[in-house]
Specification:
mainly beta, about 0% helix
């Protein structure tokens, strides 16, 4: 079995480790709702990360991320999203489609120009 075949996994916490890469099969975690990878060494996310359909809480703080996936299928149900203390220079367009967002933290990144969307869904 691959890591992504854990289709019933709802919560995954691998915070405070030294992970620097995630398997491409990660997108197969179709029931994943809560994800915590804070305080690792991640510099990028697999494109399959964008395929996760049910994410509600994500903490990617304290990594080395310079960009996020270009798509996120769970953008409609994401309530809490933390990407503090990374090296993000811009945000993908899906950030402007976070219709359920309650908490969004972008502290201590390298955001420049106009990284935030003009509007969020009503």
């Amino acid at each position: 079995k691959t890591f992504g075949s854990l289709s019933r996994l709802e919560t995954f916490d691998a915070s405070n480790n030294t992970l620097d890469v995630l398997p491409e099969s990660f997108g197969g975690l179709s029931s994943l709702q809560v994800l915590n990878f804070c305080s690792n060494k991640l510099s990028c996310l697999p494109e399959s990360f964008g395929e996760l359909p049910q994410l509600q809480e994500v903490d990617l703080s304290g990594n080395d991320l310079s960009f996020l996936t270009k798509d996120l299928k769970s953008s409609h149900c994401l309530r809490k999203f933390y990407v503090d203390n990374n090296v993000l220079k811009e945000l993908p367009t899906w950030v402007g489609h976070l219709s359920s967002i309650e908490e969004l933290s972008l502290r201590d990144n390298k955001l420049m120009n106009q990284p935030l969307p003009e509007a969020f869904p009503a």
